[in-house]
Amino acid sequence: MIKRIALYLALVVGALVSVFPYLLVVLTALKTQRQLSSTRPWVPGLPPTFANIDRLLHSGFGAYLAHSALMTAVLTAGQLLFTTFAAYAFARLRFRGREVLFWLYVATMMVPSAVTMIPLFLIMRQLQLVNTWWGLLLPYLFGTPYGIFLMRQFFRGLPAGLEDAARIDGAGPLTILFRILLPLSRPAMGTLAIITVISSWNNFMWPLIITSGDETKVVTVGIAGFKGAIGVDPNLMMAGGLVALLPMVVIFIAFQRYIVRSVVLTGLK
Fold it and tell me: What is the pLDDT of residues 197-227, one digit of tens each?
């Protein structure tokens, strides 16, 4: 009983530590400037105000949300499509240098993204794609090493006899992929989709570097823009954080079962 009580106390403390930053975001977003300076950060302002959110939405922040949603949708669709093709080739098709090419590609995961950021920007500048949607999307549209590795390992775990039976019936590679392997790969594809949505929505560094105009600015860059030369508007910044956080909370509530399954799946070979 003592061990169980200690365990639950530790879990409660861990939950409070995890939730506390989000609680501060909500409390700060619903305070006025006067309440913010006269109350402690963890004390709610009474009465709460939605003036910060109203001021935020009238500042053009809604367009940034739309841009982030569009970027996330396009990148998720591209990741699922091109990653699936590449993973199927590495897992099932036989060609010279397959293993060497695959492990060289996976080895790029060990290279920090900050190392490739400047060369990638120079490439986009030479292609005249700076501050364009193509420049924003291309580096992540055609798959990532992690996504290809995840799908490839899942494909390799499926029974090869299914494909052999399909080939006997006259099915080609694309028929086998779309009608046999993909229906069995929904857990892995759900995992990849969830990871891509979260990483795309929260992506900050690359959109900050490649975009400069309001027509391509995403929500993370828009929130950072509330820090001006004079100072920081904490109420407006936290209101932006709250609005940007809500879609992720909705996704977590709606797909909680799949998120838990993705955690289990990513821990397997």
Answer: 988 998 888 998 998 888 888 998 888 887 7
| pLDDT single digits (tens) 233-259 | 778 888 888 888 888 888 888 877 766
* Domains located in the chain, CATH noted: 1-49 (no CATH), 51-266 (1.10.3720.10)
Of 100, 96, 80, 78, the closest CA to residue 88 belongs to: 80
SS3 annotation, 181-220? HHHHCHHHHHHHHHHHHHHHHHCCHHHHHHCCCCCCCCHH
Measure the CA–CA gap between 236 and 141, rounded to whole angstroms. Answer: 32
Residues 197 and 72 sit within 8 Å (Cβ to Cβ)? yes
d(CA 266, CA 269): 8
